[in-house]
Amino acid sequence: MKKIIILMWMCIPLITYGAPASISLDGYFDDWADKPGTELSYPWNNPGQAHTVKWYVGDTDLYLYIQMGTKGGQNIGYYQIYYYVDNGNRKQLALAPDNPSGGRVAIIDTNGGYNFLTTDGYVIRGSNSDGKTSDKAEFRIPLSTFEKDANNQMFTLSLEFPNLGSQSLSFQAGSTYAYMGILISAAAAGLGMFIYKRKRNKLQ
Description:
- It is a single chain.
- By secondary structure, this protein is an alpha+beta fold.
- The protein is built from three helices and ten strands, in the order H-E-E-E-E-E-E-E-E-H-E-E-H.
- The two termini are 16 Å apart.
- It has two domains: 1-18 and 176-204; 21-174, Immunoglobulin-like (Sandwich).
- The chain has a ten-stranded antiparallel β-sheet with strand order 1-2-3-8-7-6-5-4-9-10.
């Protein structure tokens, strides 16, 4: 009976999951408080005109958050996003928010065409000039957009927002979950075989 239980345990498929996305595209933005970010601006910008960009890499999507400066009057409009995968050639996407009121945000692949990637982002409008409130947006880009240009499962992604500032941001993206699942499954099977052999030797 013990042999049968061990063998059954070895045959149970091991399901592994990536970390669930901790970002909800709902227009509330409270889940961005602990995410990494940076400020973008140009040298001639005045205080209060720096814009904030934050990011979060989920299992299948890259999530981005933009908050405009509270002074200067610049709102979130139809903006370009340049990206480089593993220091390769520059490619570009378009950020297309509902305008002028708050609403949805779409991400469009403009590399040789005009293909909508996602349409479930949110934009909320602020004053952008009163020193207190400003436009905010959150949206996602499928990781598959970048993975087709990557050399490995994990890759270096660099983003530029030319409408917001001269700086760029770079980080590691991609997923190792498939490989983790294979390794853990192999380890579990190996452990099961080891226990089975020990039990068998004791019975002999």
